[in-house]
Amino acid sequence: MGVLPVPAEVRAILLDIEGTTTPIAFVQETLFPYIKDNVKEYLRAHWEEEECQRDVGLLRKQAQEDSSLDGAVPIPLESGSGEEELERVIQAVVDNVHWQMSLDRKTTALKQLQGHMWRAAYATGHVKGEIFEDVVPAIRKWREAGMKVYIYSSGSVEAQKLLFGYSTEGDILELFDGHFDTKIGPKVESESYRRIAASIGCATNNILFLTDVPREANAAEEADTHVAVVVRPGNAGLTDDEKSYYSLISSFTELFLPSST
Asked: What is the predicted pLDDT for the residue at 78?
């Protein structure tokens, strides 16, 4: 797709993960199925732990907020101490998680449980975070040129750090100056990018955001953030209008930093 010059005012590059640094297939075919296949076993093993109970409490609260939605799955409180009662509640949590995932929901409650499950999977070597091969060399080059690099993903900060800490390229967390998730706001709302700029300590036009999702690119652009849409194998196709409107790259190596000459 050629070379894309980075505007001279850009001081920080903000990266999406899924479809940008990491193949969508890894998320869809490895991470998400791991949750679906192992959530019941994980809950049984960790049910008595404080962290697990916090996760379930957050999911229960989300379920109450979702009660008016079609197909919503409630999570009852434990009303007894028997094994049968415990299984009933665990099954409700499992069904709720499966329901949320079937709708590709990004609730904080769901992301928190997923993050804790992935932590166990990464730590035991069951999962390694996949990174496109151009990502690490490009980020090293950007950093050498004085650029700050941040992650902004709908996956929790914890899940982000696991992916990059236990990646196919080893532990590459040192390459990032900070991480943002949906706690700072949804990726399709322009206000989120203003909050990120304020957190970093720069103006929105000092940031270049790389994402594969045009709706996110549009929201960032509304906040006066520079954007480029990343075209990777397996990503959703772009319309002709999107292709002609947005700056497109297929590899991080296509970004040209004026200061790197």
From this structure: 86
Q: What is the pLDDT of residues 78-128, one digit of tens each?
A: 887 789 999 999 999 999 999 999 999 989 899 899 989 999 999 999 999
What pLDDT, in 10s, does the model give residues 171-193?
999 999 999 999 999 999 999 99
Residue 238 has pLDDT above 60, yes or no: yes
- Cβ neighbourhood burial of 244 (10 Å; 0-12, 13-18, 19+): exposed
In whole angstroms, how far apart are CA 59 and each of 69, 71, 79, 243?
15, 15, 17, 39
Q: Quote the CA–CA distance of 81 and 18 in Å, as a whole number.
A: 41
Please check the confidence at residue 1 and state whether its pLDDT lies above 90: no
Which band of pLDDT confidence, cut at 50, 70 and 90, is reported for residue 261?
Answer: very low
- CA-wise closest residue to 150 among 181, 129, 190, 122: 181
CB 216 within 8 A of CB 188: yes
Task: Give whole-number Cα distances, 99 to 30, 75, 92, in Å.
Answer: 18, 12, 10
Whole-number mean pLDDT of the chain?
95
